[in-house]
């Protein structure tokens, strides 16, 4: 690209996500005065458009660049992971008071026809999350927040190209046809009631807490990686190396959360450190936590409030009320893992034909 | 030396001379081969040390393919081990005559293969320095391993199998080590004397030994079926499409015997030639192995067919999609190598001329070994690359560290087997003598 | 006065025929040495063919089964971790644990019992042992009165013994 301010060589990502014939470029990259770690990342678009010029010339080059994206596939192949719902149908279902068919991670939802084992009880809380796909704009702020809060390592472009990204929550994007649209699916640990990852660990590193969380005990993990194999959602991340933070980046670390060594498996913990902190705050008050008192980092940061967190055992909490919405469903619910993350279908108007 | 020129021994001393004559002091080419294998072993070990120091990231495994060729090699070596026990234990119980001349070498193959297989779970651990947490020992936190985990089943099964097969092999050697002791002098006599535990062949000893040997074989028999079933449940007890299938236990056991018999052919054909054992291990024995391989090859082929049929018949989109991808996706070449080598290869043995020709026997043995290695690769890596969530699909290729460690494992096997050939009687002396006795020649 | 004679044969059949011959003369068979399994002749000597090792097998197997399953149940009840929604203790995984421990303990007890009954490891050589007994000769070590020694030597040679040796008697048993 060549503009009045200068010229730069920029890789172009060919995607059906923009209008044909339009080239869009994000601004805000190519820092030069934010220190040594911000240097050399991307190109400063402002430089090309300085001095009031409003056109640039583009010359395609023959070079090919590998993009470090994490999509294994941009299509759902009919698997119904990110679902949509017609607006008219939704209004009808809502007026009729229809309840969604969910396999909730609560003892009430156990069905002897489907469940081999009896249910287990939880203490005062059963933590759950609701993700509204209609509100999610795919900005990725939740991912940044989670990385910052939980000391998740930045692995670098080379390792992401090898498939070793470290994201405890990720935004999956799936293209749907007729007409062309994209559905964003934030995927994080579902904290399943019948988590397939727990029983296959030989040393009990993951297990089910009394409040419904799937606890990963970093100290106990010997790194067989069977839990990650057995997770159908593939949300578990392995530390392939010991990722260090060069000074002064270590000042960014959250002191409430450990850093993990190489060979240890990690994943979303529903910000258990914030749950514990909230419980500590109300310790003298002889009451249970109220809805909205525990806010994980991703929930806190989401600009559209697409993520909601709370206690599913409390019927008046936001998550419990939203789980009764006709839009509610669970990803891969048929596997009967009883996930505690409930998704709300994206509303699409009748003009857009739905692929479930 | 062509087979029809060699004559079978006609007396006890002839039998002993043929077999123990193989233990004559080896030449330079032997020691050269041993040292080469030792270097390969040390190279593999140093690559493992590098991996421990740097992290699992030096291997090619990633997300979602968390298990790479370490586990492929693990299943491969455990599978090979099973044929040895089939030959030495199950065929003993069935009184199959052709088993006697190859049982010792086959059992040695088992012991070494299980030793190497047992290394791979350690190699693939992320934090191998705390591997001992998988062993149930009392500790101050009262923490125990998770007996629900298929990996703990693995640990129990592999350690049981290693103990049973190595002791079975050693006990089977006692009378032969006594024979070696009696015909040696000096330091050799001392060493063989210690290892033979003072065996004298009294009637009391034979009485207890005979019953015990039968019981050992009876214990080893269920292990042949159960150990590889337990290894297969590492995969079948998971939720991964393409793995979560009840066919895995018999499918893996049949595959194990198939690959093990191929390895027996690969090892024994050079061994009998180099050690001069042609009078004892005749082509008829090798032909029997080949005929068994036709059977196991057909079972393996049938299993492939049933897997595909069930994936389609179940109507489970995830399962069917995985199987289509296996045949036509990124790993399609490996898949077709697997099918051709494992099913079509052994069918060549239906032709008598092929199954009595040493070169063809050796070649098909190698082909089936390659095919069975790729089968484990396709099952393990092929399923993991293409699971439930399309966003998480990914491919894997082995890195130089993984290939080096694999080379180290093959070197270690060959190293141990070469030592076996020259320091331990490669054929069971007393059992071959018993053949002469029971078939009225002496 | 007891005497010990060692008859060396080249075939098990000849040795088998010699046994009733010398037993009629009043000699007692102490040991038969053989490079191959010689259990066919055990009845002639008056020893049972089957070995009591079987009982060690049974006891060991049962011990393994109860130890394995019992220990596994104990470990589940220690912390009562809930994993994959399964109850503690779960029934199905105990099958594999019990099976493997049955085989391991049964095998090891058979092995130890066999070694014990065979008198292995044996540190000192025995009086009548000839190194050829592990190659292609069979030995018949018998005990008789001094008076009958000549007769028994003749019987042995009649039965086909290659060599008959008179061993120095000792107070200690072989």
Q: Which two chains have the most extensive interface, and how many residues on each?
A: B-C, 57 and 67 residues
Shape of chain B: globular
Structural category of chain C = alpha+beta
Main sheet summary of chain B: none
Proportion in β-strands of chain C: 15-25%
- The counted number of beta strands of chain B is 0
Number of helices of chain B: 15
Pairing-aware structural class of the strands and helices of chain B?
mainly alpha
The topology string of helices and strands of chain B comes to HHHHHHHHHHHHHHH
Arithmetic mean pLDDT of chain B: 91
> What's the number of helices of chain C?
5
How many domains of chain B? The number is 1
| Alpha carbon gyration radius of chain C | 25 Å
The average pLDDT score of chain C comes to 87
Oligomer: heterotrimer
Rounded to the nearest angstrom, the distance between the terminal CA atoms of chain B is: 27 Å
Order of helices and strands of chain C: EHEHHHEHE
Kindly list the characteristics that best describe this protein.
heterotrimer, B: 442 residues, mainly alpha, disordered N terminus, C: 174 residues, four-stranded antiparallel β-sheet, 16% strand
Structural write-up:
Chain A is of the alpha+beta class and 356 residues long. Helices cover 15% and strands 14% of the residues of chain A. Chain A contains eight helices and 14 strands. In chain A, the strands form six sheets. Chain A has a four-stranded mixed β-sheet. In chain A, strand 7 and strand 8 (214-216) form a beta hairpin. The relative contact order of chain A is 0.20. Chain B is globular and about 70 Å long. Chain B has helices at residues 12-21, 28-54, 69-93, 100-123, 150-183, 186-195, 203-236, 248-275, 283-314, 317-328, 332-347, 352-355, 358-384, 400-423, 429-438. Helix content of chain B is 72%, strand content 0%. Chain B has one domain (2-125, 231-439). By secondary structure, chain C is an alpha+beta fold. In chain C, helix 3 packs antiparallel against helix 4 (93-118). Chain C is rod-shaped. The mean pLDDT of chain C is 87. The chains are: A alpha+beta (356), B mainly alpha (442), C alpha+beta (174). The interface between B and C is large, with 57 and 67 residues.
Q: Which helices and strands appear, and what pairs or packs with what?
A:
The complex is a heterotrimer of chains A (356), B (442) and C (174).
Chain A: E1 2-3, E2 6-7, H1 45-48, E3 84-86, H2 87-96, E4 127-132, H3 141-149, H4 157-161, E5 170-176, E6 181-187, E7 206-208, E8 214-216, H5 226-230, E9 237-238, E10 265-266, H6 272-281, H7 297-301, E11 307-311, H8 318-322, E12 328-329, E13 341-344, E14 346-348
Parallel strand pairs in A: 3-14, 4-13
Antiparallel strand pairs in A: 1-2, 4-11, 5-6, 7-8, 9-10, 12-13
Chain B: H1 12-21, H2 28-54, H3 69-93, H4 100-123, H5 150-183, H6 186-195, H7 203-236, H8 248-275, H9 283-314, H10 317-328, H11 332-347, H12 352-355, H13 358-384, H14 400-423, H15 429-438
Chain C: E1 2-9, H1 12-24, E2 28-33, H2 42-45, H3 53-79, H4 93-118, E3 138-145, H5 149-159, E4 163-167
Antiparallel strand pairs in C: 1-3, 1-4, 2-3
